């Protein structure tokens, strides 16, 4: 996709926009060197690969992961802060929101990295977004629930909370299974000098370590993609509210899905009326995973408007700029009502599946990322991976357990981290590579009766607990500061 804003906006706004994109990529660069150690710590610590080789391969895998991971996690980030807020406010205030959430995330990430704490970039980013959303709602005199998509926030928060627990339990269980069935004493040995582990174990450690890097690039890279799309959609809705490269066949599919949903709603009026009477059908604002909230009547009107607007055009670029945001809103309105119908008690499984297929088709023009965004994020993350790994490797390898990390413990922690992050990608949920891996190491230490260094665990736990509220406060404070300066 071309970059139309370079010729269509004034120089001041262009400067601010380029600055915000630069800060977003800086966040992804910091994310790269902040989380690199978590992906390669056991590979380096067990002498499976030399540090420079491990870091270089990790950087490559992070780069590839951004391109292979899809965009489901990215749009979990976009939908967390209702992008309507950025469109509704003036450009300077919108950019203040963006600057505040990015700068606060970078500051906390850099600070915890400097202290050698494996804190979570995911917690940091999400806390910053929540803080900015709440601060903007307070500043504008709106209800606080209007500042954040709370259903999506709860969904994301649950994934961030559960993933370390899963890492701890599953890594410990995997180590016990390995010890029982492989029956090799080398599994429970710690690295000695510069001697690498036996070939089979070395291959497993390298493969799982690079798998963690690939999964990290996919999950964390999507957070950077989501940040940039949040900026672009919010500041330049005319250019980025829709994928303007959507062609006639895809437009036809969207129109077809809109028509099918309209027919479905009309055919189920009885169930809709009953759902209304029972209070089971419609969500209150911000209690749906969609960034908008619509009832069935609004959705039918949106579907009709959508079909009329899309009739006879070859690409979405033919839509007038002023119609693009309204088209996006129509699509999300229809999607929200379809989600309500899916959740209606008694909806047959076949209908749920049909509704999901129509929803997926509908969202195609609204959930996308231009190739240049993917390339920029993957480069920032990949280059960031090349630096900054030393501080946290020692924490992972020596300061979680009372004994040094063994080959089996490192392998079990990495396999579980790789699998957990990969499943989160599939579900479209952001998780913390840092906490999944460090909790996995702790789980193997507990299972292997190596003992745990409670001082380090307390520091990690405090970083886990404090990161979200600290990032929220930092994001809110910087937003008020930048808004006042603007």
From TrEMBL:
GO terms for biological process: phosphate ion transmembrane transport. Belongs to the inorganic phosphate transporter (PiT) (TC 2.A.20) family. Pit subfamily. Pfam families: PHO4. This is Phosphate transporter. Signal peptide: none annotated. The chain crosses the membrane at residues 12-33, 54-81, 93-115, 158-178, 199-218, 224-242, 461-485. It is a multi-pass membrane protein. Its main location: membrane. One of its GO terms (cellular component) is plasma membrane. One of its GO terms (molecular function) is symporter activity. It comes from Desulfolutivibrio sulfodismutans. Keywords: Cell membrane, Membrane, Phosphate transport, Symport, Transmembrane, Transmembrane helix, Transport. It is found in: Cell membrane; Membrane. InterPro entries: Phos_transporter. It catalyses: phosphate(in) + H(+)(in) = phosphate(out) + H(+)(out).
